[in-house]
Specification:
- The chain is 0% helix and 51% strand.
- By secondary structure, the protein is mostly beta strands.
- The strands form two sheets. Strands 2, 4, 5, 6, 9, 10 and 11 form a seven-stranded mixed β-sheet that branches. The chain has a four-stranded antiparallel β-sheet with strand order 1-3-8-7, with no helix packed on it.
Length: 111
C-alpha cells in the first residue's frame, strides 16, 4: 500500500518561503512521477507542479519562477520549494504519487 506524508506547511508573511516535503512509502518511488496540488478555500484542487521519474518538471503559470519541485530518490521524498509567496498561494497542499494522495499540509500566506 502506497502512503504519502506531507510536512513543512505553516503561516508565512507575503514574500516569504516554505519548503514542503512528501515522504513516500510502499512504492518503488524512483520509477514514477510525483505531483503537488493545492486547494484553496471554496475552490477546486489544482495542479501546482509535477516531476517525472526522469526529472522533467512542469508548473502551473502562477507559480513559475517562484516554486521549484524536486525529488530525492534515495530518500523516497519529493519537495516543493516555494519562494516569494503571495496570499493567493494559501491553501492545503497535497502530494500525489501513482494514484495515492497524502493527507495535505496547510499553507497560509498572510501579514
Amino acid at each position: 500500500q502506497v502512503q504519502l506524508v506531507e510536512s513543512g506547511g505553516g503561516l508565512v508573511q507575503p514574500g516569504g518561503s516554505l519548503r514542503l516535503s512528501c515522504v513516500v512509502s510502499g512504492s518503488i518511488f524512483s520509477i514514477a512521477g510525483l505531483a503537488w496540488y493545492r486547494q484553496a478555500p471554496g475552490k477546486q484542487r489544482e495542479l501546482v507542479a509535477a516531476i517525472t521519474s526522469g526529472g522533467f518538471t512542469t508548473y502551473t503559470d502562477p507559480v513559475k519562477g517562484r516554486f521549484t519541485i524536486s525529488r530525492d530518490n534515495a530518500k523516497n521524498t519529493g519537495y516543493l520549494q516555494m519562494n516569494s509567496l503571495k496570499p493567493e498561494d494559501t491553501g492545503v497542499y497535497y502530494c500525489k504519487h501513482l494514484s495515492s494522495w497524502g493527507q495535505g499540509t496547510q499553507v497560509t500566506v498572510s501579514s
